[in-house]
C-alpha cells in the first residue's frame, strides 16, 4: 500500500493545549515529519507566547507537572512531549495576539499556507536540458547535508533561462526545507527605490513567517533571489550565512557575475550557457508545434 502524506500540517497551539495528552501525542508524531521532510509543518500560536511553550512556563508548566505525576518525571513519554513542545517553537508560522482581529489572522494564515503549497513561481513546460543541469549541481546544493549554509549564483545573459532553471531547482528541492521563498524579478520590483526594497524585504519575511527585525537563524530555509543586479540589494535580502539556519540554501540569479564576487559569504557560481543546436531545435518544436522534433509533415 502506498502511503499518502499531506503537503502541509498545521498545529494550533493555545493556552490549554499542553493539558491534552492526545494533542501532545499528535504533536510528537508531527515533529517526526519535520525531521524526515515528508510534509511542511506550520505552527499557529493562538493567544500564547511561543517562549512559554518552549520553556514550559505558566499553563504549560502546570500541565507538564500534572503529566509527570501520572507518568513519571523521567518517563519516555514525558521526554518525548517536552522535546516536541520545544521543537515546534522552532517552526515558522503565525502568532495571534489579542490586539489583532481574528479575520486578519485567518487571512494571514491562508496567505502563509498558500506560499508553502503553491506551484512553482514560473510555469515549467517542455524543460529541455534542465534535468541534466540539475544533476550537475546536485553535489553543489547537497540538500541532504545540514552542516552549513550554501549559496549558489546562476549567472548569464538576459533571456538565457536563468529564472526558469532556478524555478526548476526550487520545485525539485523545496520539500527538504522548513520554509521556502522565491522572490521573482528583484531588479524590476526594486526600481521603485527604497520603498521597493522595503516591500521586497517585507514580502520575504512574511513568506517565511517572520516579523521584520526578528528573522530567526535557527530554521533551515530555501531562498531564491531572482535577477539581482547589485551587491547592495543582495546584502539587503541575504546579508550573510548567519542570517539563516544551518542547512539552508540560497540561490541567486543575475546577469552580472561580479555581484557574486563581493558578497561577504562565498558563493558557488554556475554559468548558464545557451542551448546547443539540437536542444534549441527541440525547444522550438515544443513551443511551435507541440512535438519534440520536426516531422516531414511539418
UniProtKB/TrEMBL annotation:
Top-level taxon in the UniProt lineage: Eukaryota
Annotated InterPro entries: Disease_R_plants, NB-ARC, P-loop_NTPase, TIR_dom, Toll_tir_struct_dom_sf
Protein name: Disease resistance protein (TIR-NBS-LRR class), putative
Species name: Medicago truncatula
Transmembrane segment boundaries: none
Segment forming the signal sequence: none
Molecular-function annotations in GO: ADP binding
Residue span(s) of domain TIR: 1-117
GO aspect biological process, one term: defense response
One Pfam entry name: TIR
Gene3D superfamilies reported for this sequence: P-loop containing nucleotide triphosphate hydrolases, Toll/interleukin-1 receptor homology (TIR) domain
Amino acid at each position: 500500500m502506498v502511503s499518502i502524506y499531506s503537503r502541509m500540517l498545521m498545529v494550533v497551539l493555545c493556552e490549554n493545549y499542553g493539558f491534552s495528552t492526545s494533542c501532545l501525542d499528535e504533536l510528537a508524531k508531527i515533529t517526526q515529519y519535520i525531521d524526515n521532510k515528508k510534509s511542511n509543518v506550520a505552527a499557529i500560536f493562538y493567544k500564547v507566547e511561543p517562549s512559554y511553550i518552549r520553556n514550559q512556563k505558566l499553563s504549560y508548566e502546570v500541565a507538564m507537572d500534572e503529566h509527570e505525576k501520572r507518568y513519571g518525571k523521567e518517563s519516555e513519554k514525558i521526554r518525548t512531549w517536552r522535546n516536541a513542545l520545544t521543537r515546534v517553537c522552532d517552526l515558522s508560522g503565525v502568532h495571534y495576539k489579542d490586539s489583532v482581529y481574528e479575520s486578519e489572522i485567518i487571512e494571514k494564515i491562508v496567505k502563509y499556507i498558500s506560499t508553502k503549497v503553491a506551484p512553482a513561481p514560473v510555469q515549467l513546460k517542455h524543460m529541455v536540458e534542465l534535468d541534466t543541469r540539475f544533476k550537475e549541481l546536485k553535489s553543489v546544493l547537497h540538500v541532504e547535508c545540514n552542516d552549513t549554509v550554501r549559496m549558489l549564483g546562476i549567472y548569464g545573459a538576459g533571456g538565457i533561462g536563468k529564472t526558469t532553471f532556478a524555478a526548476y531547482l526550487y520545485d525539485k528541492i523545496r520539500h527538504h526545507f522548513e520554509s521556502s521563498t522565491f522572490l521573482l524579478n528583484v531588479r524590476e520590483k526594486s526600481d521603485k527605490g527604497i520603498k521597493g526594497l522595503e516591500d521586497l524585504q517585507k514580502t520575504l519575511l512574511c513568506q517565511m513567517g517572520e516579523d521584520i527585525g526578528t528573522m530567526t537563524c535557527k530554521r533551515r530555509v530555501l531562498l531564491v533571489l531572482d535577477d539581482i543586479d547589485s551587491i547592495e540589494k543582495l546584502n539587503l535580502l541575504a546579508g550573510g550565512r548567519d542570517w539563516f539556519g544551518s542547512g539552508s540554501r540560497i540561490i541567486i540569479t543575475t546577469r552580472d557575475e561580479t555581484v557574486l564576487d563581493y558578497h561577504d559569504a562565498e558563493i558557488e557560481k554556475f554559468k548558464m550557457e545557451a542551448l546547443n543546436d539540437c536542444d534549441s531545435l527541440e525547444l522550438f518544436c515544443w513551443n511551435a508545434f507541440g512535438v519534440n522534433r520536426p516531422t516531414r509533415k511539418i
